[in-house]
Design brief:
Blueprint (H helix, E strand, L loop, with lengths): L6 H11 L6 E2 L2 E2 L18 H20 L3 E4 L2 E4 L5 H17 L12 E4 L2 E4 L5 E3 L18 H17 L4 H7 L1 H9 L23 E3 L11 H12 L15 E3 L7 H17 L5 H5 L11 E5 L7 H13 L2 H6 L5 E5 L2
Parallel strand pairs: 8-9, 10-11
Antiparallel strand pairs: 1-2, 3-4, 5-6, 6-7
Amino acid sequence: MHPDSRTSLCRTATSHTRKKTLLYHQNTPWEKKNTNILFDVTMGSYDGAETCELVGIYMLSLITPKFKGQVGLYHDDRLAVCRATPKQIEKTKQEVSEIFQSNGLKITIEANKKTINFLDVTLNLTSGSYKPFINPNNKILYFHQQSNHPPTLLKNIPANINKRPTSISSSQKVFDKAIPPYQKALDESGYDYKPTYNPQPKRSRNCQRKIILYNPPWNTNAKTNLGRKFLKIVDRCFTNGHSLHKIFNKHPLKLSYPCMLNMKSIISSHNKVLLSDFQLGRISWKMTLRDKQSSKNSRIPLVVSYHPMLPNIAEILHRLHPLLQSSRRCKEVIPGVPMVAFRRP
């Protein structure tokens, strides 16, 4: 979408994004308390980023004429360049604030700046230079070289780290001055790598082909080559004469490993639940130390990637489960209704 998009289109698109989410029930959006005109977009919701982009584009279309097109947007951060006197810029600042207030939004504007920190870049309008910016309260952390992550990921970390400071440094001198924090973080993570200034020419974006990702969880202790076995199964089941061979073959199918939680995260989340119950007085300290007997669940899990447009899978399983019971072999393998489990896409 372009900043010149019509207002009605942006409003319709923003309204449409809220219709297929967990916050929409019986054709009515979940509303804030004490009001019947505002709906809420939770942090981390599946369509939160899309809604933010649509609202940002709509607001961008309203304020762009004030800056004659020299304005940019990244999520909720905006940057504009205005060639005017300080007095005229202050007037424009007030007009932009009024536009946001008329739409029920708040904004903080810093005007008449020659040097600005935008995201991870410091821009200098006077000299036309730019350099990396690191928030003083932030500490750079990378995956350790010996951590439980896929080897390809660990191998590409130093090169990818070198690429970003290079792309946001206007010269070799600026790069050498800004690189020590990145070098220190690499050394602490166990990488024997020295970043160098190597600017790359901009490449035109080519149309990427559609791919299907297979996401088995990664664990270094697993010795089985899941990728090779998976592709062999695909080649055996979808041969050249198969009707689905164009979709399921080794060219569009790619392997991508999601990383599992480490032991520290698992213990911390478990302790957080116990401590919260203890602090609220729900349980005593003796109950937290008592051994718990886990109940066995014989139901077979059916893992499905979550999507807001999915139908009620549990209802479908209950309705069609008698078909499985009609087969003696299926009845032995799947005695009860499978349990539905959702994972992030």
